[in-house]
Amino acid sequence: MTIIANPGKITANMKIHLPNSAFIGNIDPFLKNIDFSDNQKLEITANQNWIAVHPVVLSMVAALGFPVKPKNIICKTLTAKSAHYLQRMGLFKFLGTESGINVEEHEPAGRFIPLTQIKNSEELSYFIKEIIPLLHLQPFQVDPIRYVVSELVRNVIEHAASQTGAIVSAQYYKKSNRIAIGIVDTGLGIKKTINQSYVANTHLEAIRLALIPGITGTTKREGGTEYNAGAGLFFIKTIAKVNHDFFMIYSGNALYKLLKTGSSKLHADPFDDNHSKSDSLPLWNGTVVGVDISLSETKEFSELLDLIRDVYSKTIKERRKARYKKPKFI
Amino acid sequence: MKIINIFRRVGSFAENKDIARDIRIKEIMPAIESGKNVILDFSNIDAATQSFMHALISDLIRKYGNEILDQINFKSCNENVQKIIMIVTDYMQEGI
């Protein structure tokens, strides 16, 4: 916690530090060090030599800073040579602050989607139709990306009750030929949403339930409501899983992270997949989702749908069977 | 016979659930209730999300039972769209 001297007043700031590296695989220390003390003020610091972060990190900073008045955002002068990346992704424009960065040379156009706020269905449709094509990818590569963005952002619009909507950003990495996507909100969070229909005593249990196909906070009924099936997050986890990509959800004090290693076998229960988890992180009011999609290894979407169909049906059958009443033999 | 062109409503990527729900409530259900068969025409649709398809057809199966699938035809679906439809019709019938 940082204490800022202010005549006649002492204030504790919300504080976020951008390390030299924070991608899904090594994001845990970054999350542990976020300080949410006072959401009226935000202090942003960064590694002095190098900043390389996943778009989900930028989406988090933007979501945290968005409701804060620009005069209450303190951004330490960024000296890292790579700091211009934050400017290119639109972070300072988003926060309404000055970066203090002198961009010495014009950056070549990159394949990235700068920080974008999406608040409703129309903005989402526009984003999918007009913004995603800016990544200049092949149609077969675009399918999983627009699928992921659509399902995740619709979750935010429908369930999160986030005043700032969803904050989205994405980056294509040429060397590894993958796209990294971050979608963040500061709404109800998964536990409150799931608890409308299911009992989840912890944030981690709520995340687990949210990832199981057919479980939605809107109803306990099998098959969901006429509008929600409870399958969106399962589909997205599956896209990452079968392609051996990272996927993370952080909500409340809990983080679930699908790891890249492990078998491709699809499981309904996310805890059966190779993963890491934590339930002692600083409390994020809302939901943070980060996903990587390897474009060179992208499994045919149709194959993936076959796998989903099998597991989904099996899961519902098992769930129905678990509810069967047993005959009493006396 | 009622023919509903999905592309005209949503473009090539069918993901807008609000429109899916509108199509179901304002076009499919009135046609079904007046005894007509329905053709959902997916010509020019490249891809669809499970959420879109759920909002379009799940409540039909819940309300009218799986016999409703005898009254609806899915036209010109590519392989992926067919698979999304099958996922939704499967889990809705499993859950009946």
TrEMBL record, chain B:
It comes from the Bacteria. Residues 28-82 form the DUF4325 domain. InterPro entries: DUF4325. This is DUF4325 domain-containing protein. It comes from Candidatus Falkowbacteria bacterium RIFOXYA2_FULL_38_12.
